[in-house]
Amino acid sequence: MRETLIVQEVRKAIGKKEIIKGLSFTLKEGEVFGFLGPNGAGKTTTIRMLVGLIKPTSGCITICGFDLQRQFSEAIRHIGCIVENPELYPYLSGWENLEHFARMVPNISKERIQEVVELVGLQNRIHDRVRTYSLGMRQRLGIAQALLGKPKVLILDEPTNGLDPVGIREMREFIRFLAEKEGLSVLVSSHLLSEIQLMCDRVAIMAKGQIIRIDTVDNLLKEQARTAWKVEPLEKAKSLLEKETTILAERDGMLITYYEAKKLAEWNDMLVREGIRVSEIHPKLPTLEDLFIELTGGETID
Amino acid sequence: MTNLVYNEMLKVVRKKRLLIVASIIAVLVALFTYAQFRHVQDVQKRLGTSDWRTQLQQQIIDTQNRLNSSGLAEEWRKFLQIRLQQQQYYLDHDINPSAPGAPTFMRMFVENSIELFLPLMIMVVVADLVSSEASGGTIKLLLTRPVKRWKVLLSKYIAMLLSVSFIVLLLALLSYLISGAVFGYGGWNLPLLTGFTINGEELNTTNVHLIAQWKYLLVELSLAWFVSVVVGTLTFMLSVLMRSTAAVMGVMLAALISGAILSSMVSSWQSAKYLFMVNLSLTDYISGTAPPITGMTLGFSMSVLAVWGLVALFVSFIVFTKRDVY
Amino acid sequence: MNMNAVKIIALVSLIAGGCWLFGLGLTVYDQFFHGPTASLSKEIKPKETAVNEQQLHLVALGDSLTRGTGDETGKGYVGYTLDALRKKTKRPIQVTNLAIKGQQSTQLVTQIQKVEVQRQLRQADFVFMTIGGNDLFQGGEALRNFSRARIDEAKKVYLKNLDSVFRTIRAINPRAVVFYIGLYNPFNQLNNAKMTSAIVREWNYASAEVAARYPNIIAVPTYDLFELHVNDYLYSDQFHPNKEGYKLIGERVASLISFSKGGK
């Protein structure tokens, strides 16, 4: 798989304060890459650097072989993006907005505009003013606008923000579709682990301007998932389980251990044999907070 | 580039700013036409004659009387003195500077609007040219196209120049069409005097010459355009520097109004003549009205304005191309 | 508004912009590179406007008294005279008040040399004038710091000027009736009233003598009007008449004009 976006040692300092402390990662063709981190971790700043809105203090961003700093037009041509909210001109119609942006890119035909409109399913309302659109429609128009120039890399900042559950699902499916069928690299940022988990192949976790971990979603989950046990009597169960695995915590009368799918049944069996009443066993996805505490060794998010 | 400029013009037109400006001008012109009409009637009634010479003579006497009043501010005195000499010059040469007609009204309207009204109209259109993109967030989309930043800004600047030209044209056309309905549409060839220079309290008439009113108007309108371009460029810079359109308007409004106030009280503050806002009344030099500060000339004022404009343009481009967009 | 409207506006703006730019070039050429024109002054040829025969022309010349300083209504004696005349005749009356506050006789001599002033005088049927008050009183200074020699000096100059004014008016317009309004003594109730009164009387007498040299110039006395109760008729500056004072003068002037026969 070809690499479409390469980020090397990118730093950004404002005054003396370094807010992005040396990021490096790559995006491959056809994958959805998640950018996970709490608000204020530097996701948006990073994304703005990727699309040329902010100049990095040092480091190098390469898009499809073009350096973003030195060959801005060639590089940016391969990127489609929505940064934060999909803000368009409210006093123009959706179609006029698309035409407006099409005029800024060489060789975009009316047919291409029609194509992206159909792709995002806005045919019915495209000639209405954007002012009258719902947030979901704006989001779709934003994506249409991002896709106009047939980009290789699509960058979406919090694409499900403010959407209703149905909208979120649609968006997710659409993003998967773009990556799998159209072969785009999609970079999605979010502060919700559940969302990233459902649509991304790989994920980078950011905190305080640094990437603390890049891995596939599967790996990350495997490592970080927990099992919660509701057992009685607690003390006895605890000592028994400790022989098999580590008790990570004791919370609300539950015991927390690592999640090891294969051994779960075994452990349960063992507990029952020893006369312990197991009333609940459930796998627990780590919350983002847990992940951070885990990955940063006990530091809090902010 | 044409595409980019077309985009910007599309936005200007669709925001309906030009329409708003056109209606404001139309309303004001109608208002002033009526006021002027009443004034003409009143003078005729008071003097019992429509002979302009008598009217002008009476104006001269009125001015002389005012000059002899005690407690007259020095600047005002000087202003009156020069206007007096000019009126006398017109009278001595048997030229009526205010022969009724739409072109005459146009001339007066341009002369009176160049300092404040026209700049305000320019401001209405230009203030949000860049700042609205920043506050509306669309700047992020605009700058992530395969177009260099300076080109984006240049297209906006060209759109600004076009809008300014359009507004000055609107001002000319509307004032001509509306006032003509009352005063008649003739009077293009009326001879007028220009080329007065002012030395202290004296009106220097060595360069005075006659030009036809249409030419005079063209001169005044082009000066109004020049002023508008400079004010537009300054507003443009503020629009680049600030996200909030209201802040841009506030700063510009403060500058323009302080200019109008300063013009009438800065005669003793010499260095104030380097401020752009006291140099806006370029048409005063054509008609020969005393400048707010001695030593100011048409060339001087135009240079000051040009320097301000160029600096503003330079700052706009530097900031816009270098700035990080958050 | 469709797409075409934008194109049309852009095109019109472009043309307008070109036009203004051309105008700016013209401006620079016209204002900075225009040679001095000496010929202009020769072009003067004041055209006489058609005089409405029906209309009466009234020209007022002189100083603050003719201007009406002190009358809060702003009418002055000219205004009151006019009010009275309007009752006497149906003909429209046009008034041109050319009086300037603080004007002295020397300045009046210059003023009536002006082309337009002369044109006004040529059309005039009546001329009202007051002059000399500022020559004599110089704002009250002359009488307070009384000096016979200085007053005599002022009087000599004044009489010469007055003669010149009358002569000019007569030369321009032989038929207009000129009412020369004399001085009153505003200091009549001060302690040196006797002396000031004498000076004003002499002044008036000499002025009347000059007026008498020309036909149709009538010296109108006001001295007697203000002799009793002078303070009732003076404005708060104790120098100019107030509304009542001006009414007195107006009535007197008006009484001298009748339209019974021959129009005058």
The first-level CATH class of the largest domain in chain C is given as Alpha Beta
**Structure classification of chain A:** alpha/beta
Radius of gyration of chain A, whole Å: 23 Å
Counted by DSSP, the helix tally of chain C is 10
If you had to describe this structure to a student in words, what would you say it looks like?
The complex is a heterotrimer of chains A (302), B (326) and C (264). With 302 residues, chain A is α/β, with parallel strands linked by helices. Chain A has eleven helices and 14 strands. The radius of gyration of chain A is 23 Å and the shape is elongated. In chain A, 40% of the residues are buried. Chain B contains 13 helices and four strands. In chain C, strand 4, helix 9 and strand 5 form a beta-alpha-beta unit. With 264 residues, chain C is of the alpha/beta class. Chain C is elongated, with a radius of gyration of 26 Å. Chain C has a five-stranded parallel beta sheet with strand order 2-1-3-4-5, sandwiched between helices. Chain C has two domains: 33 residues; 218 residues, SGNH hydrolase (Rossmann fold, 3-Layer(aba) Sandwich). The longest helix of chain C has 30 residues. Chains in contact: A-B, B-C. At the B-C interface, helix 1, helix 3, helix 4, helix 9 and strand 4 of B face helix 1, strand 2 and helix 5 of C.
In short:
The complex is a heterotrimer of chains A (302), B (326) and C (264). Chain A has 302 residues and is of the alpha/beta class.
How would you summarize the topology of this molecule?
The complex is a heterotrimer of chains A (302), B (326) and C (264).
Chain A: E1 3-14, E2 17-28, E3 32-36, H1 43-50, E4 58-63, E5 66-67, H2 72-76, E6 79-82, H3 94-102, H4 110-120, H5 135-147, E7 153-157, H6 165-182, E8 185-190, H7 193-199, E9 202-207, E10 210-216, H8 217-224, E11 226-232, H9 234-244, E12 247-251, E13 254-258, H10 261-273, E14 277-284, H11 288-295
Parallel strand pairs in A: 3-8, 3-9, 6-7, 7-8
Antiparallel strand pairs in A: 1-2, 1-4, 4-5, 9-10, 11-13, 11-14, 12-13
Chain B: H1 2-14, H2 17-47, H3 52-68, H4 74-92, H5 102-113, H6 117-126, H7 128-136, H8 139-142, H9 149-183, E1 191-194, E2 197-199, E3 202-204, E4 209-212, H10 213-241, H11 245-263, H12 283-287, H13 298-322
Antiparallel strand pairs in B: 1-4, 2-3
Chain C: H1 3-32, E1 56-62, H2 64-67, H3 76-88, E2 93-97, H4 105-111, H5 115-123, E3 126-130, H6 133-137, H7 141-144, H8 148-172, E4 177-181, H9 193-212, E5 217-220, H10 243-255
Helix pairs in contact in C: 3-10, 4-8, 8-9
